[in-house]
Amino acid sequence: MIEVRNVEKIHQTGETEVRALQGVSCNFPGQVFSFILGPSGSGKSTLLYLMGALDKPTSGEIFVQNRSLSTLNRTERDTYRREKVGFVFQNFNLLKNLNALENVLAPYLPLGVSTEQKKRAEELLKQVGLGQRITHRPSQLSGGEQQRVAIARALLKRPLLILADEPTGELDTQTGAEIFQCLRDVSDQYKTTVVIVTHDERYIRDTDFILRLRDGKIAE
């Protein structure tokens, strides 16, 4: 599904170079729950953003379904992010002035929302347990409920890949477990590949793929 081939990423801060990734090579299997683990500063989020084409590697290549992301022009990268990848972040990234349904539809609001998209957004909110909270705004939702809205938003496009960066970082243990179960349920139903960056190993199962990073290199 995803092949990472000798990827390096160097961040330049003034005259200082930070080598976030140093020659990382690995393969993430398709339709599987995968975890990227490691201490802070190990390059976990950097690798996730590269796979989502939110950034470009300094050297090396990342292939998604045998196509190198490095060969995509700006329009193709935008299309890849918009149509192929669903993002779930730690801070939810919901718009405060929109209700749950509108937040799920937010990426499509500038272009106009079809009746089919609205119906699917409503169905997704019901699927993640928010059928009674569709008209509520973020301030009226708990942290776990806001993250469920973010998951529904990521799924609306029927993505090939879901990339989640510390999706339970702001949540308590019980709510975190519910969010991971929600992600697993939708992954099973839609056969979506899920890659998660986390510090918390409590939610990992024996069948999951695990990549450990330390100081920008594969540790295990």
Report on the architecture of this protein.
It is a single chain. The protein is of the alpha/beta class. The protein has a domain at 94-158. Helices cover 31% and strands 28% of the residues. It has helices at 44-51, 74-83, 100-105, 115-127, 143-155, 173-190, and strands at residues 2-13, 16-28, 33-37, 59-64, 67-68, 85-89, 161-165, 193-197, 209-214, 217-218. The strands form 2 sheets. A 6-stranded mixed beta sheet has the order 6-7-8-3-9-10, with helices on both faces. A 4-stranded antiparallel beta sheet has the order 2-1-4-5. The model has no long low-confidence stretch (mean pLDDT 91).
Number of strands: 10
Work out the helix count.
6
- The average pLDDT score comes to 91
Helical amount: 25-40%
The assembly state of the depicted protein chains is single chain
Between the first and last Cα atoms, what is the distance in angstroms? 20 Å
Order of strands across the main sheet: 6-7-8-3-9-10
Secondary-structure element series: EEEHEEHEHHHEHEEE
Report strand %.
25-35%
Main sheet: strands, sense, barrel: 6 strands, mixed
Radius of gyration: 17 Å
Specify the structural class. alpha/beta
Low-confidence stretches: none
Shape: globular
Defining key terms:
alpha/beta, 6 helices, 220 residues, 28% strand
Helix-strand blueprint:
Blueprint lengths: L1 E12 L2 E13 L4 E5 L6 H8 L7 E6 L2 E2 L5 H10 L1 E5 L10 H6 L9 H13 L15 H13 L5 E5 L7 H18 L2 E5 L11 E6 L2 E2 L2
Parallel strand pairs: 3-8, 3-9, 6-7, 7-8
Antiparallel strand pairs: 1-2, 1-4, 4-5, 9-10
Helix pairs in contact: 4-5, 5-6
